[in-house]
Amino acid sequence: MTQQCNSTEIASLQVNGDRLNDTLKTIGAIGALPNGGVRRLAFSLEDIQARTILQTWMEAAGMTTTIDTAGNLIGRYPGRFPHTPALATGSHLDTVPNAGIYDGTYGVLAGLEVVRTLHENNIHLDHPLELIVFADEERTMIGSKAMAGQAPLDPDYYAHPHYAPLPPSLAAIGGDWERLTASQRQPGSLAAFVELHVEQGPVLEAAGGPIGLVTGIVGQRRYSITVAGQASHAGTTPMDMRQDALVAAAQVILAVNKIGTADNGDQVATVGSMKLSPNVVNTIPGQVEMTLDIRDLSNDRLDQMVATLEQDMAAIAQATQTRIHLQPKLRNEPVPVNSHIHSTIAQVCEDLGLPSTALPSRASHDAQIMASLTDMGMIFVPSDDGISHAETEYTSPEHCTQGANVLLHTLLRLDHHYGCTEEVVAAVSAI
Ligand code: GLV
Ligand code: MN
Ligand code: MN
Prior knowledge:
It is a single chain. The chain is of the alpha+beta class. It folds into 2 domains: about 10-215 and about 335-430, 3-Layer(aba) Sandwich (Aminopeptidase), CATH 3.40.630; about 220-330, Alpha-Beta Plaits (2-Layer Sandwich), CATH 3.30.70. It has 13 helices and 16 strands. The strands form 3 sheets. Strands 1, 2, 3, 4, 5, 6, 14, 15 and 16 form a 9-stranded mixed sheet that branches. Strands 7, 9, 10, 12 and 13 form a 5-stranded antiparallel sheet that branches. It has a two-stranded antiparallel ribbon with strand order 8-11. α8 packs antiparallel against α9 and α10 packs across α12 (about 395-415). The protein starts with 6 loop residues before the first helix and ends with a helix. Bound molecules: glyoxylic acid and manganese (II) ion (MN) (2 copies). One manganese (II) ion binds near residues 103 and 104.
């Protein structure tokens, strides 16, 4: 590490909490909704505006910036050994349609605040430090999936009735669908990845501890469910001669709820979106398309949920004279975090006098995908009332600042742990 500070000054280094919380307000205003929430869908004008500001801020903080073919915005703060694998942090700026200002954005801005703190103290780590703004975390996870070489290359895989096709969307943010695989990184090309995020659940607040030591991230599978019946006249078709897609869909929703509540397990299952056609008062619904999202820490449990649902759907299709089809849309494997990074975060919390609580992440994150490329860790800060993906999402400025300080000191320690020996430098330069 090169620096003007001595090691005692480094140990007491603190981010500028006011500056961090100001940037949260600035980015939170982009796409602000009248209800106090924010809508900054991936690839929208608001997303592009937020990314453009971030790029300017990254460059002012001494980073070089690039956008890879998957649309990831990557800031790179130089290290003492430029050819050694970078340490990386980051998250996302895109939001769900009615979001709060913290989900994703907090991790990006805390990463920026870490770099600003290093830059103004003239500190360079041994490793380069990358701050990654992943493209479209909320729907396709195309940014991290392409980086990890896990993105399906068929554009139809990403098709959705409510969203524009992916190739032109990627172009709008500086990506390139035709050259998507150029964004792939090789395992070992990053020294480690650490993501800081709001918990989005109630565990930390109940535990009273400001910092969450994430132990692992749940597996998530998403599907589209298509129910095909027969649209027909709502007055002339007797009740026992209908193929009503919506009646079948309603039964599928109950079956989804059943697999989510079975055995008192921690698994969850949600139908979150539905499109009905023709959606007309005096016509029997002919087709329903809906989404399914299931999550659990165990892949076996997820397999079992899908098998049960498929059986139930076959019975519903027969009883309602409809056809029901389940199509996979996204699959994230459950992953544990790296044990060394986990214990480093725990030690940092102890040294900073911040109580911490170990817990799994029940939301998906880009970190989950990055775990296939490098050692991965995650830090959580509390969400008031456990609420997220809603306009009332809130994390106090104090907790935001504490989390950013934990990120700063975790990265400083990992810089030592992942040593930059001449052999490592030579081996990496030769790739
Ligand atoms: C991302 O926010 C997810 O967990 O769905
Ligand atoms: Mn998020
Ligand atoms: Mn989210």
